[in-house]
Structure formats: structure tokens, C-alpha cells
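Box S1 | Example of a co-folding query
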Amino acid sequence: MTDDTDASAATPGRSEDPVRGSALFGPQPDVAGEAGYTDAPARVGFFTDTSVCIGCKACEVACKEWNAIPEDGLELTGMSYDNTQGLGASTWRHVAFIEQRKPLGGQEPGVGHEDIDVFAAAGNLGTSPSSPGPGATAPEPGSAPAGAPAGEISPVAPDGRTELRWLMSSDVCKHCTHAGCLDVCPTGSLFRTEFGTVVVQEDICNGCGYCVPACPYGVIDQRRGDGRAWKCTLCYDRLGVGMEPACAKACPTDSIQFGPLDELRERAAARVAQLHAAGVTDARLYGEDPQDGVGGDGAFFLLLDEPEVYGLPPDPVVTTRDLPAMWRHAAAAAASLAAMAVLSFVRRPR
Amino acid sequence: MTGSDVTRDGMEGAHPGRDALTGASTGRRRRRRGRGEQAMVPDAEFSSYYGKPILNKPTWRPLDIAGYLYLGGLAGASSLLAAGGQVTGRPGLARVAKLGAAGAISMSLAALVHDLGRPARFLNMLRIFKPTSPMNLGSWLLASYAPLTVAAAAADVAGRHRIVGAAATAGAAALGPAVATYTAVLLADTAVPSWHEGHREMPFVFAGSGATAAAGLALACAPFRQTGPARRLAVLGAGLELGAFQLMKRRMGLAAEPYEKGKPHWQLRSAEVLTAGGAVLATYAGRPGHTGGRARLLAASAGAALLAGSAALRFGVFHAGVASAEDPKYTVVPQRERLTSRARSDGD
Ligand code: SF4
Ligand code: SF4
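Box S1 (continued) | Returned holo structure for iron/sulfur cluster
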């Protein structure tokens, strides 16, 4: 265990420049190239816009069906509508439900409608842009009548306490630029595909379980009974024939968007700007920054609260960033052990 | 039940849930700590998803993996005692250490294979050479080290092939220190807070722990008059192990807390007492006044205490890591602090 090991661990591209980090850490504009692919297709991923998620779980079902994932416990948790609980060996999409006493941005809770003559209002239906006819569910932004926030349906309770918002978010493997699971896998079962995604090869995995605690997001897990590790493949089989992943296909609101990562990042930035302009100041992107601790996620999110509220780590760092330091310390420790042994023998024999 | 009823006269009894505040029992929460334990850091308030862990905890079986760490340390350091015993003319010490190294590393490998979800695919570990995976490098290391220990032990017992035996003993001694310390990298190279945050000191803890275990085995089993080096190794090893462990806990911040709570706490306390006690006893046994049966008895108890102490340490470290993965606090709070301080320094 010498320092040569970390030298080889970090080649090629060892230098830590801000545009292109080392092999273990930092930004990496060409993950497939780094993994040895020549003329690979553009890196693809997911942009999950949780602001439009309706919690229908179509993605969970589509994923289970397409990938023929076994059932993994039918429990009632008693916490919200979420009986799935989290990602694991047999759950590759997980919809989180969070109830909060907090208004959605742009929403005006507690607005009374007592002074509105509903019959007169009904008579006016469809006669003006501020009162659209059947088929329209919410007024156009900018043309909303007083008390009805644009683009939203205002929930009102008699006691005026309507400060409820329900956050829903479909979680998935992040397909990290620097994936801890992939780095530590001793068999090479986990590998980087030509699309820049991270996939387990079930015919190679020997179930050592090392990838499980290496993932900073708690995604991959070992399947009981089967023994091997499983996680989202970003539908590698479907990508190969030009189809989008099953979850994105099934999502009725386009909360899950699939596409080339560069394009998704642009779309996400525009969406955040739009939400901020509409007064939803809570909106923020999570995992899209190539400067973050994992070099940016292949699957990133638009969230409406802090990541930890959704069960996501606020600032994950790939564990192998520190691997060279670990090997250096282990080498020093090994040297001290040898030195202690020598010291024990060189003393005058009794 | 709700306690409300709809009767002919309308509703009777109140619905107790009616006044429940949405989200009041979720989201931000405050943790209460266990009885009678000292707060190392003030309790942090943090958000989580219904208190669910962020990480998936290790699926490793404690007996297999803590046992694998322990036996690896015992074997690696024993190989050093074996070579030293051979060079300095202590054949009894050398034999015990050689047999110990071969036996321990075989059991360690067996534990590792037993823990696999697909044991028949063990050799897939050697499909590739992958420096970013400590388990892969460790497998290559064990694949070269284990046969050397077996050859060294076999040559010693058979009393033949002395040259081969000496070469194998030397080879095993060269690889031994790496075998004893790489397992710390294996644990630290994960997202588990109480393992990863100790990545600088844990190799030294494991080096010391391996040394005390090997010294313990020699003290318990080798002829007393040849155990001088083992006694000194016990003292040096105990010093390194206990010192590095204290340093590790002091430097790792909140992630040190799982080492101070519940099962890991008493395992590590026992480890400290056994290791320190074993080292003291070993020194005491070596005083000129002690000879014969009494010295042998002292040495044997010192050896047993050292062996048990090293094992307790590995179990304590293992369980503390698992506990830190099970509680979102250890993932969220330090990361949140990091973000806050980064934002603050960006602001200035
Ligand atoms: S480290 Fe976790 S989130 Fe990243 S690619 Fe691996 S399993 Fe997915
Ligand atoms: S469990 Fe399988 S995929 Fe995970 S690290 Fe081990 S061999 Fe690789």
C-alpha cells in the first residue's frame, strides 16, 4: 500500500483545474469520454420539476412494470400518502409527500368569497377573459380577478386557515458525475454507460454490498433473497433503442423530463426564473451544479424547500474525493506498525 | 377512535383531529438524547423526511465484517512477529505467530466470502484491477498474502523447505502491515459519517489494534521466555490505538457522537479497558521477579485481554458507523453547517 496506488487512481486528468477536475472530484464535462468511450452520444439525464408533481405515482408504477421489479413489502407507514418510504433495491422511483403549514408562493390563503354573487358570476362565464368558460381551470396570469391568484386555484377554509402546501417529489438515482457506488465497486459490476449513466450488471455483481454505504444519497441497496445490488438503470435498455425512460414516459405532468443534460440544465434555469417571477421564491435547483461535491448529478431536481425536507442530503460529497488522503494515511499507519514491530525486537533480549 | 358520533340530533362529541395543525408533527424536529449521557455538541435542530435516514445503511453482517477486520489485523501484525521471531532466534514465538497469521487470514477470507450476497462469485473480485476500490485492492492483497502465510506456517510445522519458508515469512511480513491497515480505508471510503470522518486516524487505530491482537495471541500461546517482543508490541500498539482513537473522536465533530452512545459506547469502553489492562498486565508479567507458572498465567490473561479488546474495538467501530447511517442527523447537520459557513464566507 504505497502512494503509487493513489497516483494511478487519479490518472488520467489528475490536475485539479476548475473546468475539468480530477478523475475523482470536480467538474467533468465529458463523463463518457473519461470512462473510455470514443464518440459517445450526448450525456442524458432527468430534470425532475417537483413544482408540477401531483403525487400520482405513475412513475413508480411504470418503473416497477417496465423493469419487472419485485414487490418489496406492502406496509402502511401512517406518514402521509407515502408507503414506499425511500429508494432501495426494489424501488427505483420514490414519490415523497410532505405536508407543510406554509402557503405556496403566489397563493393567497384566507381570501373570503362571501361578498361574491356566485349566480351573477356564473352568468358571466365565458364573456370576458377574466372569466373563462368551461374547460379553463384557472385564469391566465395577469388577467386574474381580485382574490383569485393567477394560475392557481385558491383553497379557502371557513376559518381562513389555509396555510397548507403539499410538496411532492419523485426521487431517483442521481447518476452522479463522480459516483461513489461506481468508484468502490470491486468487481466492475457497476459501470458508466455510453450515455453517461451508471448501471449495475446483474451477471457480475457478487453482492459484496460495498456500493450501498458508498452512495451519498442512499439510492442503491442489496436485494434480500437475491443478494445482489440493484438500482435505477435510467432504462438503459430503452435508451439503446431511442426510447425515453419509462418513468418520464408515464409522467402525466412532465414533472419528470428526460433529455440531453445540457438542454435540461437550460430548461431548468428558465423554469426557476419563471417561478421566481411568479412569486414562488422557494424554488431552487438541486444537483444541477457541476461544481458540487459529486461533480453534478445526471438526474437533478427543482425543489420548493431545503433538500433535507425531501430526504436529500444538503451537500453531498463523493467519498472517493478523499481516497488519495486515505491511502496516504494508511501507508503511514502501515509504516508505523512495521516500525513498532522492529522496535519491539531491537530492544536488548531479556 | 375519534370519539364523535352522528346521531339523529346531529353530531355528538368532537373530532379530536379537527384542530390538528398540518405538518405540526413532521419536518423540523428536536432530538432528545438518551439518559445520563454527556452532550459533546449541543443538540442540533434540523429538517428531515419524517426522520427517515438519508443513507442506506451497510448491509454487512456485523459478525462477518467486524470479524473480517479483526482477523485481518491479527494476521497482518502476527506476520511481523513471525519474521522477527525467526530472525532473532525465537522459534516458539515465530511458530505461534505463523500459525496465527495463516489461521486468522483464512478465517477472515471465509468471513468475507460468507458475507457476499453471491458467495460463488467471489472471484469476480479479481476480474479487474481497480485502485479506486479498496475492496478490490484488498482482494488482490489478500490473494497474495494468504498463500504466503500458509506456506510459511506449513514449512515451519513440517520443518522442511527452510528457504521457501523463510522467503514466505519475509513476504508475509512485508505485506502484513498493509493487510492490517487497508481495512480502515475500506470503511472510511463510504458515505457513512462516523467512518468517513475518521479517514485520517482510523488506519492508525487499526494498526494499533492489529498490533495488540497479535501481541495478545503470542502472549497467550508462545513460550513465555520468548514473548519479550510481544510484551513491548502490546504496549506500543495499545498506545497507538488508544491515542489515535481519542484524536479521531476529537477531530470528527458531530460524527463522533455515535461512538459515545448505546452499544458502540460500551463496546469501545470495554475495548479501552481490556487493551490498556492487557498492556499493563503484559508489562507486569515481564518483570524480572516473575517466573514459571505465575508468569505464564499473567501472560496468558494479558493475551486474552488484548485479543478481546481488539475484537471489541472492531465491533464498536462497526456498530457506530451503522448507527451514524441510520440517523439523518449525522448526514444533514454537518452538511448544512458546511453550506452555511460557505455562504457566510462568500458573503464577506
Ligand atoms: S452514488 Fe448513488 S446516486 Fe450516485 S450514481 Fe451511485 S447509486 Fe446513483
Ligand atoms: S454489491 Fe455488486 S454492484 Fe455493489 S459494489 Fe459489490 S459487486 Fe459492485
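The pocket of iron/sulfur cluster (ligand 1) is lined by residues A 173-176, 179-181, 198, 215, 217, 219-220, 231 (CB under 6 Å). Residues 14-39 of chain B have pLDDT under 50 and may be disordered.
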